[in-house]
Amino acid sequence: MKQDESRVSQQAEELLGLTSSWAEKRCAEISAECDSKVQELLETAHHDARVRLRSHFESDRTASRQRLAALEAAQERHKREELQRHEVMLVKKVIEGLKDELTTRWKNDEQRSGWVETIWQLAHQRLIKACWTISHPQDWSSDEVAGFEQKVHEYTGIAPVFVVSDDIEAGLLIEADGAKLDCTLKGLLSSRYRLESEIIAALEQDENNQDDS
């Protein structure tokens, strides 16, 4: 009887030992599994955080580049507008100066004589032998009118018609059989676009020459 009780007790202890060993092993497995899941969770969270951070940085970088590009474009546009305003102001001054210079030249006897001679050479080359109508300022001297009339008469064989025009400040306007040679102050400055282009080109050339020096 005592042997049976001893055997049962021994078996119970062995079973308890096995159960305890299995429990410890299972706890270790569960702990390892938990550690693995925790590590996986941490890595996933870390990865997601890096992705969000990278996306945030990229978004900020893109926005910064866009703001910088917009600022540079605005500065460039402002620079062009300032340059255009500066050029317009310079062109206006040059044209006004040119107008004053031509008016002064017409009032000077020697320079007016050279101007009229140039007009005569152009008219002689471009206008046919017909009745010329010559419009001129009121202040053109009668002696110069007579001298010019003689040249034209000798060339065309027909006495020209002289017309005093209040619209002409300087220079002459000659018409012959529908053709017109406008060498007045207004005529010389009439092609404003071409004149402005030439002035701007000259100003830019001066700036380039200054930069090279």
TrEMBL record:
Species: Solemya velum gill symbiont
Q: Which protein, by its recorded name, is this?
A: Uncharacterized protein
Superkingdom assignment: Bacteria
